[in-house]
User: Fold this.
Amino acid sequence: MRRVRCRSVAGGVLILAGALLVTGFGFGVSTIDIHKVDWANVSVPGSVCGATHSIQLHKGRAVVHSRRWPSVPRVTVDAGWNPVVYGNLDGVGQDEAALVVGCNNGGGTADGYLAYAQVIFTTAGKSLGVIGVVTPKQPRKANRLPTLVTVKIRRGKVIAREAWYGPNDGTCCPSGRTTTVWTYAHGTLRAGKPKVTHAPSR
Assistant:
């Protein structure tokens, strides 16, 4: 195996630095092993945190200028505090992967978080690509902390479980629950209708 710098693939997909490549038997073709990607140093779409360009992570973090939150001049991007989730989304080849990403004001507390997302990655030969960004679909009310989102990857869909805050929830413990199924077809993820499975505590 050897280290290389991988470039973007078609469809607005991003760059991966320092990926581990594995050579195919008898074909001389090198492809990324998605289970060995250095997730702390990949690029994620700028749209995740309101940046105008892709965001290059360094040790799981970056700082960007964001248009989404004008009152926060510099937004901190954190990724990978939960394990990367793998699953075969398209039913062929190797797995796809989901990387959790959060945007915050740099204050270092849960109250400082602005948004969460899961970036769904795939491979295309020597390149790592982004299929889509899974974001919470439960409407967020003013003055509430952002909705957390975890995912499972299944063939043809990504199941997003959203944890959201009610008016009496503490920072530690959002009690609302919503499930949104994102359907994968023709290279695109589309969100279905979110379904509330548990109303927040009152």
Summary: Residues 3-198 form one domain. The chain is about 0% helix and 45% strand.
